[in-house]
Each structure stands twice: as structure tokens, then as C-alpha cells.
Amino acid sequence: MLKFFRKYNKLILAVGGSLLMVVFLLPQALTQVGQGSRDPVVATIGGRDVLNSELMHSRAALNFYESMLPPQARGQGSIVHRLIGVNFVEGRPDDEHWHLLVENAREGGFVGGPQDGRNWIGELAQNIAAAQQQQVDYQRRLLESQGVDPSILGVNNFDQVAFELELFNAMTAAADRANFSGIGQYRTAPGEVDQMLAEARGVIRMYNAYERSIKLSDLEAIRDVRDQFDQARVDYAMIGTNDLVDSMPQPTEEEIQAQFDEFRDIIEGEGRHGFGYRLDPVVSAEWLKINRNLIDENVQLDPIAVSARYQRDKSRYAADFSEARPIVEREMRNEQAEDVAQRAVRLLQAELLKREPDYPTVDGVTEVPEDWNSRKADFQEIADAVNADLAEFLGGVFPVVDARLTPGAVDRESMNSLLRNDIGGAAQRRGPTRIRFDDLAFNTRELNEDTPLEVQVGPVDRRFLTDPSGNIYFYRLLDARPARPADDLEDLRGKIVADLKRLKAYEAMIELQDTLRTDAIVDFNRAITDQNVTLTTDINVRHNIMSNAATGQGVPSNFNNEDVRTAIMTHVESLDPRLGAIDRGPEQNIIVVPSPEFLELALVRINSVEPIAQETYRRLEPRIADSPNPEIGGLANGPDWPFSKDRLAAKLNYVPDIRETLDDEEESVEESAVATGS
Predict the structure, then answer these.
(1) DSSP per residue, 324-372
(2) From CA 646, how far away is CA 94, in angstroms rounded?
(3) Residue 19 has pLDDT above 50, yes or no
(4) Per-residue pLDDT for 90 more than 70?
(5) What sign for the dihedral angle of Cα 440, 446, 447, 453?
(6) H helix or E strand, kind and range, residue 43
(7) How far is Cα 252 from Cα 245, in angstroms, rounded to an integer?
(8) pLDDT category, 633, cuts 50, 70, 90?
(9) pLDDT (0 to 100) of residue 155
(10) How far is CA 574 from CA 424, 568, 588, 671, in A?
(11) CA angle at 463 for the pair 461 and 464, rounded to the nearest 5°
(12) What is the DSSP letter of 422?
């Protein structure tokens, strides 16, 4: 045997060496093949390969940015879209565009490390809270200008500091949660989420640096300062179409159909004259309500127990029994009512667990079968069972637990108005935040596939809600339909007819505006009286804003809109500011301004013209001339915006990988050749 090995040792070494090479190299080759198939090259940037995982990182980042925000701030046109300027494709943010933006920011040295990203959360929360405060202030001024007390609608209750802290905690928790468990189906490495935040912060730094580099010309500075500070002081009255609508002819079927076809997929308020018939998202729901007030009213107190409580804690009440008794009874009533309410919660949870089918859940999504509606637990039967169980504690059967339904499928506005004293006023606590029912209902998976709230149609949400009165709710969403074009003309016929008649009445008013102005020149107050409208006095008008001169409050949008402001200030530019209203005379002071968005006419009397003083301009000129171009925001959609996807792709030499496409085309050509026999 040894002779055999000695004789053939060279051959054995050669064969053995080959086998060893196969053993060592084959796994590496298989690994490389596996990696190539799992993480293919999808593009190149400047000749460097871009892997699919890099675009997946960008897609995960875009999903994460929105998941940090309040539900109402998400979606196309959301704060993400406005803040980071990313394109949307078919309603979703474009991950390729975002990847290019981050690459460009990284090349410019604007992107920091993970800690820089984590530090950004506080700045972002502060900015969002400040923007929310501005919106609340605007709503308050608008309500006050219309004679409505803002406190009735809770507008004055906004606490910017508390909101900022709540937002900071929520966004920090979202970042921690994403670092731990990933973002949807995307898994994240330690620190990757913080780096995503750093990338967003870097892109915004890049925008800011670019905007600061654009300076106004002298002529632009003059125009800008005049637009901001030239103003007129006016009185006005809005004249609507109410008096003319009834006299307008009935629209034809052709007109009705044309109106429906033109505006069926446009949101109300966004189409011409504000027309729009696109249907809002709607949901329907059912819920079980534990009525805390009814429990309080029907709790039975044992007089002996009341006396015993007083005797045991006499020193705490510092009064004799006759004086302390109402206090003792109130304490005991609250305690027993809380016990009954918690018992009701446990009973409801037990009944739901017993009666509700247990569907499997995968990655937080419950797999609900198509026939779930016929298999779901009956809420009324559950309510009856729980009420019967509570009877011995309340001395009789009371409808402590109610089973209720939404009145059909309702949009968010209808839900808040119809159910504000019921489940519409309730919220669910999740960590440090409370999420209102409408935010839960309108952020289901059926309406928002990227929702972080794990809410969907079918299963009962086992986390209850509470309202300010202490009532407790368990709910189930029965249906959720996204926004969609109107599909039934007949459902909208009445609204369409009313809109068309208003439009015809407005057109008739436009033809009479010269007559209206002539009457107002003769006697302005008589013209106001004849039109049976209300005169509003002492309004400051500038190119970009209006306010009540005496109070500083806002002005209703049917007068305070760009069409009206531009028409007034354009007319004012033709007037001699050295003359007073009396010297100019009513022919120059009185104008009629159409407000086409609201189908109304504004009858306006100009009381004074107040151009910016030359000395004020000289004081402001250095700051204005050195400021960023005020129209920079409009460039993002223009051909000169350097951060558009096309401009960045050209700059960075971004080339999508086309090999797979070419292979498909070659296969198609070969198949065609075989089919034709060529």
C-alpha cells in the first residue's frame, strides 16, 4: 500500500489539490451567486454599482419618516413631501429620487452621523409644534372674526409646549421601535434608523444652503418690500347669489352630465369655482359602550358600610358624620362605580375572546377571511350578557353596555359632527400619546397601507378607548373605502343642480357689476342696504395678507383670497397716495371685485392708501436684498430646480441597470423568430 502511495504521490497530490480547490472555492462561488440573486445591481452612480438593498434602505427611510408623524400629516403633500422635496410616483414617494438627494447631500458634506440624526428629532418636533400653533392661531382669529367663541370648539386649548413634548416623545419612541423591530417588512441594523434621520437632516441642510445662495436683485427687492408693506385700508361687503338663484333656469341634462364628468374626480374646493365631487374616504364601525354615568347613577351603597368607612377614617374628614356623609358617599360611589366599570371591561373582553373567531396574525396583520362578516360576534348579544351579569351589583338590569353603529358609511367630518358626544370624542392611549377615534378609523390598512397603527377592517380592537366622561369603548371597523371619483350622478344630482344655478346667478351678477358700482358711487350705504348685506369696516389689505385694523384678527377667506387682494392692490397702485379719500372722490375709491372661488362679488370702498415710507424702505433694504428669494419654494416644481430627479440623475451620472431588460427583449426577439420560423 505504501508503495502505491509513493508511486502515485504526484497524481494524488494533483487530484487532491484540485478537490481541495473545489471544496474551498465552490462555497464562495455559491455565496457570490446567492448574494447576486439576493442583492442585485439595480443602477450605477458615476460608474459605481448601486445595489437593490441601497434603494430598499431609501424606501424604508421614506416609510419611517412618515410613520413618525401624526396620522393627519402623512401622505402625498404631507410634511414629508414639503420638507424633503421628494417626488411622488403613483401616490408613493420615489425611492430613487430620495437616494439621489441623499447621495448629492453626502457629496456636499451635509450628512452627519447617527447622533446628528437623533438630535434632529427635537428640532423637528419644535418646528412642527410651531407650525401647529400658527394654524391654531389662524383658526382662532377666523372664528372670532365670525363671532364664534373659539373655546366652544376647543381651539384655545392647544398647548404648544405640551404638544412639542408629546411629539418629541412619540417620534423618539417610533425611532426606538424601528431600531428594535424594523420598519414594516424592512429590517434595520443598529443605528440605521438614526442614520436615516441624519440623511433627511442633511438634505434639508443642502436645500437651506442653496436657498441662502440666491439673492434678490434691486428690482426684486423693491417689488418684494412693496408687496409686503404697501397697504390700503378698506370697507367691504360680500354680495352672494342667494337672491338670484331661484330665478335661474333649470340646467339641462347635458349641462348636468358635463358638470359631473368634469368634477367627479376633483376634491371640493380645488376645482374651478371650488367645484369638486370626489368622494372622501368613508368608514363604518360598530362599538360597545360602557356608560360610566349610568353606572354612577345606579350604584347601590350600603348605609352600614358608609358609616363604617366614616368611623374607620374619622380623622381624615374632620367633621361629624352628618356633615361628612355626602363626602364619604361620593368617595364610595366613585370607588364602586370604578369597580363595576372594570368588571364590565373584563366581562366584555371575556365575551369577545369566547365569541370572536381567532384569526391568525402575520407581521401584525390579521388574516381575515372573506366571510368574516357572517362569522363575527354579535355585539348586541354581548351587551345583553354583560348587562345581565352586572345586574346584581346595580340592583337591576340597566343598559350599562350599549351596542351601537355608525349611521352607514361616514366621512371624517360627518363622524366628528355626528358622534362627537359618543365614540367620536374618545381616544385610545398608546404609550405617551392619545389617538383619537377618527385618527384610528381613517388610518386603517385599507386606507393607508403604511399605517403604523395596526388597525384594519374586521377584527375587534382589544385596546379600549375612553372619553372625557369616563365612558369606555370597544370597537370594530366594518368597512373602509378610500377617496375615489364619484360614480353615481344621481346621488349628486341635487348638489350639481344647485352648483350650476349658483354659477349662472354669479355670471348674471358679473354682468350687473357696473350697475352695482354706479349705485355705490351715488350712495355707498344705500347700495349696501339695497343688497341686504353686512358692511365690514376698517380692513388692512396687502398683496399677501389681510387683517382687521382694530383687532388684528383675520378676515374670512371669501374676501381674503388672492383674487381679491390682487385686484384691490392693483387698483391702489393707480391712485395718488398724496390725496385723501375725499379728495379722490367715490369714483376712484369704490370698486367691485369678483371672488370667483366663492361665486360672490366684493363691494369695496378704499378709505386710505398707505405706501411704505422711503425711510422705512431704506432701513429694510439691506435685509430684504440679502434674503433668500421668496419664490424659492416655487422652484421645486420648475425647470431650474437643481434637485429634481432628472437634474440629479444627470449630475451624478445615474444609470438604471438595463441588463435584465435587454435580456428580456432578446428572449422576446428569439421567441418571435421561433414563432415565425425565421
Answers:
(1) HHHHHHHHHHHHHHHHHHHHHHHHHHHHHHHHS----EETTEE---TTH
(2) 12
(3) no
(4) no
(5) positive
(6) strand 41-45
(7) 16
(8) very low
(9) 58
(10) 53, 10, 9, 74
(11) 100
(12) T
What value does the mean pLDDT take over residues 47-56?
A: 88
Q: How many residues does the chain have?
A: 678
Average pLDDT over residues 250-278: 92
- 403 pLDDT higher than 50: yes
Q: Grid cell 434603494 — which residue? A: 55
User: Is the C-alpha dihedral spanning 248, 253, 255, 259 positive or negative?
Assistant: positive
Sequence-ordered list of residues with C-beta below 8 angstroms from that of 225, at least 6 positions apart, any chain:
612, 617, 620, 621, 624
* Closest listed residue to residue 391, CA positions, set 308, 298, 307: 298
For residue 283, give the nearest of 419, 452, 75, 444 by alpha carbon: 444
In this prediction the pTM is 0.52
Conformation bin of residue 273: beta by default, left when phi > 0, alpha when psi is -120 to 50: left
3-state secondary structure of 418: helix
Residue 368 scores a pLDDT above 80: yes
First and final C-alpha spacing in the chain: 63
d(CA 389, CA 399): 11
Dihedral sign for Cα atoms in the order 447, 449, 452, 456: positive
Residues 6+ apart with CB under 8 A from 423: 285, 287, 289, 404, 437, 465, 467, 473, 475
Are 47 and 166 in contact by the 8 Å Cβ rule? The answer is: no
Give the mean pLDDT of 638-659. Answer: 81
pLDDT at 539 over 90: yes
- Of 120-134, 277-291, 624-638, 652-666, the poorest mean pLDDT is in 624-638
Q: What whole-number distance in Å separates Cα of residue 500 and Cα of residue 497?
A: 5
CB atoms near residue 153 (< 10 Å): 12
Closest C-alpha to 548, from 233, 239, 238: 233
Distance of alpha carbon 433 from alpha carbon 436, whole angstroms: 10
pLDDT computed for residue 299 by the predictor: 81
